């Protein structure tokens, strides 16, 4: 009897304890992520100042901008030089054209004036043939003809003067002989006149725009 009692007591003592299921399941940690590593050797560090292909650094941009600016400055200097040369050539062409036009005009006027000089000389010779002593009221026709020729000569010379053609007579003002303007036909001593003075005009001279078209043929005093 005693043995049965002890056996029952031992069975109750070793009976497994029933675990109480918790209301909430325990939080389980996620498995760690798997990382893959390359077996290749690590690339060498890039040198300082090197950039990745296709990517420009600010230093490269500044160099390109500086180079482009220098190129534009050279183009500006070149264009300015060409512009100044063109302006100078154009002005030289204008001046040369003006001189050529003036030269052609003077040449044409000079040729025409030489032909007119012969006509003017005819008027002079016609007036010189009339004896002043015969210009009296008794010779009214001769006086009228003489006055008409003289008036025609004056009007003609006034018209020519407007175009630069002038006539001069050295003996009227007792001018000193000038080889650039006068042509000495003869020389003669005249005590009452200064030496080297043009006392006689054989043929009057002409100036065209201030230049000698024809030198006056004169007689010069030579007392020495």
From TrEMBL:
Keyword Hydrolase: no
Cell location: Mitochondrion matrix
Keywords: Chaperone, Mitochondrion
GO biological process: protein folding; protein import into mitochondrial matrix
Region (Disordered): 41-60
CC terms in the record's Gene Ontology section: PAM complex, Tim23 associated import motor
Superkingdom of the organism of origin: Eukaryota
Pfam families in UniProt: GrpE
Gene Ontology MF: a single term: adenyl-nucleotide exchange factor activity
CDD domains tied to this protein: GrpE
Membrane-spanning parts: none
Similarity remark: Belongs to the GrpE family.
Protein function: Essential component of the PAM complex, a complex required for the translocation of transit peptide-containing proteins from the inner membrane into the mitochondrial matrix in an ATP-dependent manner.
Name the record gives this protein: GrpE protein homolog
Species assigned in the record: Bimuria novae-zelandiae CBS 107.79
């Amino acid at each position: 009897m005693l043995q049965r009692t002890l056996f029952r007591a031992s069975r109750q003592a070793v009976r497994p304890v029933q675990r109480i299921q918790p209301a909430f399941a325990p939080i389980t940690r996620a498995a760690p992520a798997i990382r893959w590593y390359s077996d290749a050797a690590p690339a060498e560090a890039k040198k300082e100042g090197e950039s990745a292909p296709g990517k420009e650094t600010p230093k490269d941009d500044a160099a390109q901008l500086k180079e482009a600016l220098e190129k534009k400055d050279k183009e500006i200097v070149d264009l300015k030089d060409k512009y100044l040369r063109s302006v100078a050539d154009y002005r030289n062409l204008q001046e040369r054209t003006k001189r050529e036009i003036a030269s052609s005009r003077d040449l044409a006027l000079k040729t025409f004036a030489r032909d007119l000089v012969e006509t003017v000389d005819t008027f002079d010779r016609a007036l010189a043939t009339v004896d002043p002593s015969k210009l009296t009221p008794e010779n009214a026709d001769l006086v009228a003809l003489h006055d008409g020729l003289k008036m025609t000569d004056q009007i003609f010379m006034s018209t020519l003067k407007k175009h630069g053609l002038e006539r001069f007579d050295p003996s009227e003002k007792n001018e000193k002989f000038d080889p650039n303007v006068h042509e000495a036909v003869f020389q003669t001593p005249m005590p009452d006149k200064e030496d080297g003075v043009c006392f006689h005009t054989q043929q009057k001279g002409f100036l065209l725009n201030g230049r000698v078209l024809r030198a006056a043929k004169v007689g010069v005093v030579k007392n020495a």
